[in-house]
Design brief:
With 171 residues, the chain is of the alpha/beta class. The chain contains 5 helices and 6 strands, in the order ββαβααββαβα. Strands 3-4-5-6 form a 4-stranded parallel beta sheet, sandwiched between helices.
Length: 171
């Protein structure tokens, strides 16, 4: 586990998708919670391809769920589809020539049918991070269901899904 300071805060990086991922996830969770005062309702996990699948599994490996997952060119792990009890929101991106494109389109439809907060941004590209130039302004993002105080009291509402996505794409 390595921590890197940025202008927005500290980012932690660990192995994303191998036999050690459960231990890495628990270690990141324990260490960040021991060092920082963290509101679990504000924790978002992100990953690219297999790392997106690993981010979706965070709920399996730590005592608490993450508030949302940002999945770039990857969705839920195979054999672990979302259901009506999925405890986090999902924002996905994929290129229109990505080999995971159809999987993410299907996931988008599944999340919509389950009534879960989600968004999918498709860009002209392959299996890659989306180019900064193709990201629409935050107020024009195709978010299907805003998060609006899903399980939070108004006075303690965490940042919106839209603002978390904005911070994620600024990196």
């Amino acid at each position: 586990f390595h921590a890197y300071p940025t202008r927005h805060g500290t980012i932690g990086v660990a192995i994303c998708w191998d036999q050690w991922f459960p231990e890495a996830a628990r270690a990141m969770w324990s260490e960040t919670h021991a060092r920082l005062s963290i509101d679990d309702r504000r924790v978002y996990a992100a990953g690219f391809s297999g790392g997106a699948r690993a981010a979706c599994l965070m709920r399996e490996f730590v005592a608490h769920s993450v508030a949302g997952v940002i999945g770039c060119s990857g969705g839920f792990p195979f054999g672990e589809p979302p259901d009506g009890t999925t405890p986090f929101d999902f924002f996905g991106t994929a290129g229109n020539r990505d080999f995971n494109y159809y999987e993410l389109r299907d996931l988008d439809r599944t999340l919509a049918s389950l009534g879960l907060a989600h968004a999918l941004l498709i860009f002209d590209g392959a299996h890659e991070w989306r180019p900064r130039a193709v990201l629409p302004p935050v107020n024009q993002r195709p978010i299907r269901q805003p998060i609006a105080s899903r399980n939070f009291e108004r006075a303690q509402q965490p940042p919106s899904f839209r603002s978390c996505v904005q911070h994620a794409v600024e990196y």
